[in-house]
Design goal:
Helices cover 38% and strands 20% of the residues. It has 123 residues and is of the alpha+beta class.
Length: 123
């Protein structure tokens, strides 16, 4: 179980490195937000099966191919949110980071996305 918890820690650190991102704890869970909008849900650190929930468009179908992944409940799945468990069958960390960034690009304000673009194109 150490790998899933390590993955969770790395995903959280990556998400917090995005422009304007900050950690919040609604409903007693860890989430990363940008301008008040949730980018990624990470549940609690003590959760028996760590994982993340992200909003995807381009990678939505790909994410649903991960064993144990499913559209998010409470009607969020219809809006593109996907629950992705962190298991031995979870995609590599770089793929998870790509999905967090995709979610960020969907929910963050354009000015923050532009700042991210400046960061990634800077020498």
């Amino acid at each position: 179980m150490s790998r899933p918890r390590d993955t969770r820690r790395k995903v959280l650190a990556f998400a917090l490195g995005l422009p304007g991102a900050y950690e919040d704890h609604p409903w007693g869970e860890d989430v990363v937000k940008a301008s008040g909008k949730v980018v990624v849900f990470l549940g609690t650190a003590e959760r028996p099966e760590p994982g993340m929930t992200v909003k995807l468009r381009e990678s939505h179908e790909q994410a649903l191919l991960v064993p144990g992944a499913a559209p998010t409940g409470y009607g969020l799945g219809r809006a593109g949110w996907v629950d992705v468990p962190f298991r031995d069958t979870t995609p590599p960390l770089d793929v998870l980071k790509d999905w967090v960034e995709e979610s960020y690009r969907i929910v963050a304000p354009k000015r923050l996305v532009a700042e991210l673009d400046r960061r990634t194109t800077a020498p």
